[in-house]
């Protein structure tokens, strides 16, 4: 026999379904507007550094919604990802329509911004999904802000598309939808941020606390970071090698360095490449001369085009 529902519980459920978790839709919408404005302000710099031509970003109309219905209008040509947080496995859902995907792929690959986009009417390819995952990561970091108020975990889940969208199950609950319109001179598309209201409202308290103590802690942590030490590694590239050839390597075997190896040495720390250097000698010691910082965007595009 089912447990009886009290009148108070019934009223709370009806209230949640009508106006959201807090019963204060205006408060929720205003919090969403602040989050959307902060995200849009960050995206201009964060995303345009990846593209061959600049795009414009604008916040759309904010709506109260339900998490279970966040993907109800998603088509097979959309790109979707989910970012978890400390308190929720689906703290931020990002849903990008096919027009937006087409626009961003063109911006990544150097298309003419004065020509209209070619719509994508199919599930996305692996290369397209990798590009959109890069975009989603930047959007999530912009939404989290410098104080990490949403406490999102990084990296975001790899973007998925096609039938995987319909298979994805979301826990239901009151949510908020924040659309972001992305434009070029001739084309536009939309990505929608959907997050549970409790995650959004919790972030308000986190942001307020950070504002009070942020400056003091920034100074303390900044000083500790500057005093910390890390190990630097100079990595000299040799040559591509099959797994079969690698398995046959023996002690004492000599591998020839290509001519470009001296000028493409990479200075890295904790498995992250920092600078491209030139390898050489200074007196009796080996040395590296820093040439320029590593261009991660160029590396990503070179890796995609090499496939």
Describe this structure in words.
By secondary structure, this protein is α+β, with helices and mostly antiparallel strands. The protein has 2 domains: 196 residues, CheC-like (Chemotaxis protein chec); 55 residues, no CATH class. It has 8 helices and 10 strands. The strands form 2 sheets. Strands 1, 2, 3, 4, 5 and 6 form a 6-stranded antiparallel beta sheet that branches. A 4-stranded antiparallel beta sheet has the order 7-8-9-10, with no helix packed on it. Helix 2 crosses helix 4 and helix 2 packs across helix 6.
CATH superfamily name of the largest domain? CheC-like
Q: Can you tell me the CATH architecture of the largest domain?
A: 3-Layer(aba) Sandwich
Quaternary structure type: single chain
Q: How many domains is the backbone divided into?
A: 2
Average residue-wise pLDDT: 84
The class by helix and strand makeup works out as alpha+beta
Brief overview:
This protein is 39% helix and 21% strand. The chain is α+β, with helices and mostly antiparallel strands and 307 residues long.
Q: Which key terms come to mind for this protein?
A:
alpha+beta; single chain; six-stranded antiparallel sheet; 2 domains; Chemotaxis protein chec; four-stranded antiparallel sheet; 307 residues
What is the element layout, followed by pairings?
Elements: H1 7-19, H2 25-48, E1 56-59, E2 63-66, E3 79-83, E4 92-96, H3 98-109, H4 126-144, H5 163-167, E5 174-183, E6 188-196, H6 197-227, E7 233-235, H7 243-247, E8 265-269, E9 272-282, E10 285-293, H8 296-305
Helix pairs in contact: 2-4, 2-6
């Amino acid at each position: 026999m089912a447990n009886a529902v009290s009148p108070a519980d019934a009223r709370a459920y009806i209230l949640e379904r009508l106006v959201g978790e807090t019963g204060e839709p205006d408060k929720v919408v205003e919090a969403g507007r602040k989050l959307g404005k902060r995200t849009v302000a960050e995206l201009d710099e964060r995303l345009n550094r990846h593209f061959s031509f600049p795009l414009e970003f604008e916040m759309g109309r904010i709506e109260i919604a339900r998490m279970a219905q966040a993907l109800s209008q998603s088509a097979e040509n959309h790109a979707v990802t989910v970012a978890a947080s400390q308190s929720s496995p689906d703290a931020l859902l990002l849903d990008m329509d096919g027009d937006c995907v087409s626009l961003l792929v063109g911006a990544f690959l150097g298309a003419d911004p004065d020509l209209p986009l070619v719509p994508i009417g199919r599930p996305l390819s692996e290369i397209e999904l990798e590009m959109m995952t890069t975009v989603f990561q930047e959007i999530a970091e912009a939404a989290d802000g410098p104080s990490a108020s949403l406490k999102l975990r990084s990296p975001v889940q790899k973007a998925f598309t096609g039938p995987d969208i319909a298979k994805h199950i979301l826990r239901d609950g009151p949510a908020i939808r924040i659309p972001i319109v992305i434009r070029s001179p001739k084309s536009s598309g939309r990505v929608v941020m959907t997050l549970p209201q409790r995650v959004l409202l919790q972030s308000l308290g986190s942001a307020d606390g950070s504002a009070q103590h942020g400056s003091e802690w920034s100074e303390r942590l900044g000083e500790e970071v500057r005093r910390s030490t890390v190990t630097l590694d100079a990595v000299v590239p040799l040559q591509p090698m099959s797994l079969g050839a690698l398995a046959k390597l023996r002690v004492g075997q000599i591998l020839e360095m290509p001519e470009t190896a001296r000028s493409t040495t990479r200075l890295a720390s904790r498995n992250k490449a920092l600078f491209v250097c030139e390898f050489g000698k200074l007196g009796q010691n080996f040395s590296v001369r820093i040439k320029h910082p590593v261009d991660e965007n160029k590396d990503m595009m070179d890796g995609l085009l090499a496939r």
